[in-house]
Design brief:
The chain has two domains: 2-59, Arc Repressor Mutant, subunit A; 64-220, GntR ligand-binding domain-like (Four Helix Bundle (Hemerythrin (Met), subunit A), Up-down Bundle). It has helices at 2-10, 22-29, 33-46, 64-88, 91-110, 115-128, 133-141, 144-155, 160-168, 175-181, 186-205, 216-220; strands spanning 19-20, 49-52, 56-59. The protein is mainly alpha-helical. The chain is elongated and about 55 Å long.
Length: 223
């Protein structure tokens, strides 16, 4: 039930701002109200649903300020995680990283709407492999990856079908990052992680790669 509702949100079948009426959803999905309540509670913890007193549950609408805040926090945390991964990751950590990237690419090729979950799993593995529980806790509990990925989804104006096709373009997007993480240069890993996360934000804000275009830092200064 959780996965089904999450898929409907990601595909924009349930667009941002939609009210989630329990009985209507239960009837639509052919289940009782109880599993719908549980799924909505999980989605609220994920940051995809908000509860409004006396009105009920709604699909979260992301503001530019919320997306930018998540971007700044995620960039800072994961840049350091990338550096520490190169310095501390075990052979098993590196093997798992390759495996998670293969899973992500498989989702991009066959089930693009699962890309968000596969991407978050990959990035959290990088943080977990630093051996710093507090760094992992900060990253995981902040729902930063979810905020950016779903902020991206909610900011799109395409149809659900076009959203799915756009996710397919993510195939292979982690390749440069994986290469430096498996190397021995912490500085390169930090820079590549920053570039990777910058690219996510560029898509969200509609920034196109063009000659002589302003840097992302300049664009972020615009209200």
């Amino acid at each position: 039930m959780y996965a089904e509702l999450k898929r409907k949100i990601v595909s924009r079948e349930l667009p941002a701002g939609s009210r989630l009426v329990l009985r209507r959803l239960a009837k639509r999905l052919g289940v009782s109200v109880t599993p719908v309540v549980g799924a909505i509670q999980r989605l609220e913890r994920d940051g995809l649903v908000v509860m409004v007193p006396e009105l009920g549950a709604f699909v979260k609408q992301w503001t530019r300020a919320e997306i930018l805040e998540a971007y700044y926090i995620r960039r800072a945390l994961e840049k350091e995680a990338a550096r520490l991964f190169v310095e501390r990751a075990s052979p098993e950590d590196k093997r798992k990283l390759i495996e998670l990237n293969d899973i992500f690419d498989g989702c991009a090729a066959t089930d693009p709407l699962k890309c968000d979950e596969a991407d978050i799993n990959l990035h959290l593995h990088i943080v977990r492999s630093t051996g710093l529980p507090r760094l992992y806790e900060l990253t995981a509990n902040s729902k930063i990856g979810t905020t950016l990925l779903h902020g991206l989804t909610m900011s799109r104006s395409e149809s659900p079908e076009e959203v799915a096709l756009s996710f397919q373009s993510n195939l292979g997007c982690h390749k440069p990052l994986i290469e430096v993480l498996l190397g021995d240069d912490p500085d390169s890993a930090e820079r590549e992680m920053a570039r990777h996360i910058d690219n996510i934000l560029k898509v969200i804000l509609g920034i196109k790669e063009e000659p002589n275009s302003p840097s992302i830092q300049v664009l972020l200064e615009v209200p």
